[in-house]
């Protein structure tokens, strides 16, 4: 393969990854670019909730400026609350960067920082039982 064809193949490479947390689902599209990251059409630096913004930027900060300035990431996230959306976005970005680079060191770095960054958090809400107000609460009895 010629060097021009290899360069074109590198330029056209696109990675799509998903991340889930509780009922939130995020889909990240990683493409070669200038280091821009959008979450639901908003630049990540301008995301209104600071704690969620910091959580979403963790994989970008761990990956370093070299990798961050060479890719564009567009994330669309829906469902859940704002922190579940932030954690789903974090997982989608981390998985996308790891798969885009194919670097085992980057995967290991993400795993050492937080085991849920690549694998996901298995905890879910407990379903509500019949004849109850919530999952565990039962009606009080007043005759005891």
Describe the protein's architecture and organization.
The chain is 42% helix and 20% strand. By secondary structure, it is an alpha+beta fold. The chain has a domain at 26-116: Ribosomal Protein S5, domain 2 (2-Layer Sandwich), CATH 3.30.230.
Give the arrangement of secondary structure elements:
Blueprint: H1 3-11, E1 15-21, E2 24-32, E3 37-39, E4 42-43, H2 50-63, H3 65-68, E5 71-78, H4 82-101, H5 104-113, H6 116-119
Parallel strand pairs: 3-5
Antiparallel strand pairs: 1-2, 2-5, 3-4
Question: What does this entry show, briefly?
Answer:
This protein has helices at residues 3-11, 50-63, 65-68, 82-101, 104-113, 116-119, and strands at 15-21, 24-32, 37-39, 42-43, 71-78.
Using only C-alpha atoms, the radius of gyration works out to 20 Å
Q: Helical stretch count?
A: 6
CATH topology of the domain at 26-116: Ribosomal Protein S5, domain 2
Strand order, largest beta sheet = 1-2-5-3-4
Q: How far apart, in Å, are the first and last alpha carbons?
A: 83 Å
Please outline the major beta sheet: 5 strands, mixed
Mean pLDDT: 90
Number of strands: 5
Quickly list its features.
alpha+beta, Ribosomal Protein S5, domain 2, 6 helices, 5 strands, 42% helix
């Amino acid at each position: 393969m010629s060097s021009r064809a290899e360069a074109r193949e590198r330029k056209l490479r696109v990675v799509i990854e998903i991340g889930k947390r509780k009922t939130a689902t995020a889909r990240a599209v990683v493409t070669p670019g200038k280091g821009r990251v959008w979450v639901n059409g908003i630049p990540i630096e301008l995301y209104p909730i600071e704690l969620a913004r910091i959580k979403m930027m963790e994989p970008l900060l761990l990956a370093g400026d070299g990798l961050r300035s060479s890719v564009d990431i567009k994330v669309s996230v829906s469902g859940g609350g704002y922190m579940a959306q932030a954690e789903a976005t974090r997982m989608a970005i981390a998985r996308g960067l790891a798969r885009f680079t194919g670097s085992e060191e980057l995967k290991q770095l993400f795993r050492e920082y937080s085991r849920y960054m690549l694998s996901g958090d298995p905890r879910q809400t407990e379903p509500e039982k019949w004849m109850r107000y919530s999952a565990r609460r039962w009606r009080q009895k007043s005759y005891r």
